[in-house]
Write a structure and sequence with these properties.
The complex is a heterodimer of chains A (277) and B (571). With 277 residues, chain A is mostly helical. Chain A contains eleven helices and two strands. The chains are: A mainly alpha (277), B alpha/beta (571). At the A-B interface, helix 4, helix 9 and helix 11 of A face helix 5, helix 11 and helix 13 of B.
Amino acid sequence: MSLLLDVVTTAGVLFAVAMGLLVVFGVLKIINFAHGALLTLGAYAALVTTKLGISAWLAWPLAFVSGGALGLVVERLIVRPLYARPLDAILATWGLGIVISQVITLCFGREVQFARSPLSGTIAILGDTYSVYRLALLGVSVALGLLFAALIEGTRLGLSARAVIMNEDLARGLGIDTQRVRLLTFMIGCGLAALAGALITPLSSVDPNMGVPWLINAFMLVMVAGASFLSLALASLILGGAQVIVSTFVSPILGGMTIVLLAAVVLRLRPAGFGRD
Amino acid sequence: MGGALVVAAGPFILDTYSVTILIRGFLYALVALTVDILWGYTGILTFGQAAYFGIGAYAAALIFTHVGFEPATILLAVGLALAIPALAGLVVGWLSFYPGSTPLYASVISLAFPIVVTQVIFSGGTFSGSSSGLVGYEVFDLSIEAWFWIVGAVLLLAAGAAYTFVKSEMALLLVAIRDNETRCAYLGIDAPRVKILLTVALAAVAGFAGFGYANFSGVVAPEIAGFVFGTVLVIYVALGGRGTLIGPLIGTVLIDAASSYLSGDLPYIWQLIVGLVFIVVIVALPKGFTPLLGRLWYAFSGQHDRQRRAAPALESQSMQPALTTATLEIVGVSKSFGSLKVLEDITLSIVDGELVSLVGPNGAGKTTLMRCISDGRERSSGTVRVNGQDIEGLPPNRVARFGLGRKFQTAGVFESLTVAECLRIAGTLRDKPSPRHPLHVLRLPEAARAVVETTGLVDSLLRQARLLSHGQKQALELAMVLALEPKIVLLDEPTAGLTSLERRQIGDILKELASRHRLAVILVEHDLDFVREISSRVVVLHQGRIVLDGAVEEVVGSKLIRDIYAGSGHG
């Protein structure tokens, strides 16, 4: 039973962590390799709330806003010239990631720290006790997924974003301000990345390089998922589930590379991944 | 020359600490050269070279730790440090490159690979030293000066070999694949295979550098095989200047040395600076610092940026005596997308000397038919035999080998190569590009040479293909297809967008191809006057079926043709 809970809550964490990357990749067709550093940023937002002694719940909005604000600057200065050079965009955002984590190191030191959790304790569920926070996180992930799926399906920004995905020139010709759509999309993607960082801090410690392993898993999941929230959820569930099973029954070290390996093989056999062709 | 001087004099001028750092920098530079050939020249952004380096290092360290250090085991260690990375390169290459694979996917694999290697090292427990690595194994007892000279010499040799390679015909092939892999496939080139072989060779080089590292440093740790080190190599190459060899080499040595000195005094600031400079270079200076310094140098010294090169000598390739006559047999070919039938039961047979025009309104299935003839995986049913060979399930590069050339509607040329280089690469199938010699002599079959001469391309042999006019590009692609020495040529609207003079030239050439060179020529064409002028036979396609097939006058003059083109033939 607790294995099943592990699988779904792990999938929830992975989904939350990958969502920002998916938004950026889906609309802008570039990979934001600063995603890991943005997660770290969000985690330090949580640490700040702990240090200031204010409510740990405030970490979430604080992370989202600071990630989005950083995204505003970064899109203008770094990402905008690189839409036509997607491989270079990977590199430039990786450089940005280095810069962010070094600045964080300069401000907060390189040691491992801990942020307070807004929820603690365990809950009895079907005869097992399980972490309340992990369960709450699953709920938050699902809610965020539904919220942003609704945003894409139901709002004018979402419609414009989809138009930009399908045919950018035509979208521009129809009077859509594609530059603004891109800016907002990138900001949302960065905000979500930082929010995910704040969400995962109660589960892990905080240090300046904590984002990198998350980045890799998120990246592989997004490659497999393509551009849809639903296939990302599916990918998180299947690959995250495989990770939990391998870690539990074989070895945690092999579990660490399960997602990467499976994603690579899935893409080789089916280049469209879990998305439609 | 300067490099040799630095390597020779280094130990006399520098203190031991600097020499030690430079030796390590040389080893990294050796790997950076492989990154530059893959990324700078071939367009494959890779984070994986670190993993091959790590595998080579661990192969040596494991043998010396667990088996011993004596001549036989040293030989074994060298062998394994080359063979295991090469084998891993084969797997990675097979995963990364297949028909239709994207550059992004290759980068994904190159990212996944070092992560897998690191995890494998971690899971090896005390055998591989896990996270703390291996240390204290026996290594060569050499003075630090000797190390400097040996590693420096190896690096210079490797740089020389790499320089020769990137100036060779083979490097042109890599650029051609980067520019237009589809065009390569239709010229009979197995691009994925070329890239896999390149990956294998460069994996072995990186593995060898790793062997040197394990011996020199006396310690190996999982980080040297990791993805982060892979990105560091890419950063060195980017800052030095991708696609220049010398830039990545010097960049790696200098930045690595600077990192060693400065990370002590300014630990985080230095990383911060490297990150910032890296961003600026990628965004604003994609070619890195080398071209910038080059320009400054020329501005001060007053020399010209580029020496004038001589055009390669044009030679005629003696025609292979035709063993078989050209035949194209299409029997009952259909193609459907779901329930939509685009081609239905097409049966057609064409022999050498014929110039067949395929006409019909838009959406009649003309281009689809061309695709079904040139790619064995396209049609839904039926048989296509090219010069007697069934193309069942074969990719375009295999079909091209049966003697079939295809020219596309939008001219596919290799944009960053010159005209002469495009033509050279087009002849890859009959004359393998040399990995050592630059392009000096351009051997062209008579038909291709005729195109080059009549269209005036012969005067632009040194011009980059992307600078050509639309008409010149069309002519170049036609010449490239003919350089393949095909027996059957498919041409998709070869005269679209051409001036009337160019159109007449192409028409004359096509007639020559059929009558004098005895090729079987099939062309898709809309202009009925042009068709009437040059064809020996006309096939009319309408709604996926052949509705007429006969001599020019009877078809072009028929009522059906008028009806179809007037638009009343539907339904």
